[in-house]
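To whoever is on call:

I kicked off a structure prediction for a single chain this morning and the downstream step that reads the tokens threw a length-mismatch warning. I double-checked the sequence; it's 766 residues and nothing unusual in it as far as I can see. Pasting both halves so you can look.
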Amino acid sequence: MSAASWKSYGGIYKTNNINNLGVGTIVTDRILVRKQNTTVLTFTDSITVQGYQDVTGNVLSTQNTVAIDSVFAGNSVFVDNRILFVDNIVNKKVEGDPGFTTPSAPISNLTETYQSATNYIGGNSTTVGIGTNAPRHFFEVYENSDTVNGNTNVDTTMFSVRSERNKTNSILVSNNDGTGVKTKANGSVSSLEFHASDLDTTGNLITTLQNSGNDFNIQNDVGSIYIDALTLYLQSDGTTKIDVSNNVSISSQLSVSNSAVSNSFLSEYYTDASSNYQTTDGIVLTASDASANIFQHFVNTSNKGLSIGGGGFIENNNVSTGTIGLLSENNSSSDSSFIPTMTICEGTSKISNRTTLGVNTYSPNTSNYTMDINGKTRIGHSEIHIREKPDFVINNIDFSKTTPLYGMVVGGVNAESLFSVYVTEDGGENWTMKSISNPTLTSNENSHLNKLTIHVHGSTYAYIVAERSGVDDIILYSTDKGTNWVTILSALSLNYNNIFGYFDVSHNIFTASPTSDDSNLYYYTVGNNTNTFALDITYNTNHFIEDFAGTESNTIYSTGQDTNTSECVIGKYVFDASNGGTTTYEYSFSGPSKFNRIVAYDDNHVVAVGNDYIAYTSTGGGETGSAWTLLSNTGFNLHDVHILSSQYGIAIGSGIIVYSTDSYNTWTQVPDTLLNASCMKNRLMNDLDANSKLSMSSHNVLISNTNNTSSSELFNNYLPTLFNTDMNVLDISGGVFVSGKITCDELSIKSFVLDSGGIAGQTIQF
């Protein structure tokens, strides 16, 4: 074949049967391939294409593909590993060009060199990740470097979207309904918008969080804005203002404070405290103008409640006034539904009547009076409050006769199956719990423990009987107000139902047994801080002792059923420790079958109560018992009683409290007006039953209720009206003018001067 024979064919495909070309090197300006994919071209070395390469099919690269310049894909791009974003992979100049240098990262080392690169796109068929090969969500941006120049506390910007436009927005999230969240930037205003449906429709906008200059706005035109947090702070160097067109409703507790001190409080009067006693404004409500007033309402959903207002006086806008009243129909203070209960007005004088308090009046007399009352007026004085809630059932309350502010409460075991006492030194206003730490009480015998009965004596002493089922009872005493207790095991192996004790040179202790075959009284003496009896005497009576009371002269009054009959007996026993008792007085009543409780004020004054019966004596009963008085058919079923003095007594029964002020001769039910002065009548009386206990401290009445089988409530009832009529509830300094009738049960006048202008022979009658 001649050197130019191939030209004779002129066109394509006529290659003179030459199908393959094998040469060492081809140097040419251009290679033109007229037919695509005629065969496979295999190059064992690199191919450098400086110009444009157009590939209409797939390009498969089994190793690294390095694009020095732009890469254009007219169809899908599939990446089996990662797309890396790095600087200066290779120099842009190729070998042969002037200025060629060795590539900074040869292509052959690309994978090894950049396998730890952090800036890349990775993922799989369901997720896309930036900076991670294993994104946890559909799209995730992850910075996998934990330090910047060795510093873990350097701030980092993870995601940034910018636009050269002045107005722009981005959709953060959206579902198939178009509901989603959008961010917007419009000049100096940036916002976060929450849309209900179509993000592109303005009418579907629900809530906007917007920052404009120095202001931050939260706007919701269709619903409520809820802030659920443990603490909400509104902090500012100036004033926090809430301004709405209608109402601000806060469905929770509200506390408002102002730490900024404005001035000293009434420094001209409280001169000693003016430097320390400061005042500031917490809440200020301002009316519309100087002639108006403003109100604050406390109402229920039916607009019933209290209203407090202030501003100018209706009759004189220059006079300051404040009003407290009730709303009967709605929450408007502008109509007849508002009832002004109290009206406080600025007085006409800066000296004598600086203010006037009007009660049940629309127009108090500010000229002459400090108080102007329109209507009937009652002045009473009583207080009933729960002062303690022991976690055991109270079995006994007792106060010292010689130190009436000192008392104790005892009962059954507490939640830990241990015994404890509550001690007061201020008449029952405050109580202190003290545990009875005693090996005998805390041993495995706890299952036998039932209750405690106590007697308090002097200013520091107390005596306890611990009742234990199936085993002997034990006696305890304390000489330090219940802090420490000494235990004495009875040598007589008995069970007791009550205890009385006092201390002189030795502890004198009286007990009795409630069993149906035991009609004895037991007398013991014990030295101070010892745990053994120095003396024990058994004294037989003619009745089963169900209850007894003692005096400090070794006199015991007891009551119970006669051993031979069904009649109830009250017995009196005077003990002499030297011979076990010298005098006995007994009297049998034919009426009652039982007295529930007997108490003694002293040797002569004794009261016993039962169902429909009250028995009392003021002379010790007499040698034959003839000095006892029995009140029958009282209508009172009483189970506990206390004698305050030779004149006063009080008793409780099921849902009833009665008292006497005439040496126990008549008993009257305590009026509801006293019991309900503190709105505690029902709370006190509903659970008043046979398990309730009664005692008194001075003029305070202590009553226990049993809530359930494991706890009690202790009520302190301050009722001076019953027994302390010298307690003044109204002190008047100045003249008194009465245009009506004066009616009183008792009247005491220390001094009386008839007006010199009175009529001669004028009679004053009470």
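Update from on-call: the warning came from a stale cache, not from the record. Cleared it. Sanity check on the structure: Residues 423 and 432 are 5 Å apart (CA to CA).
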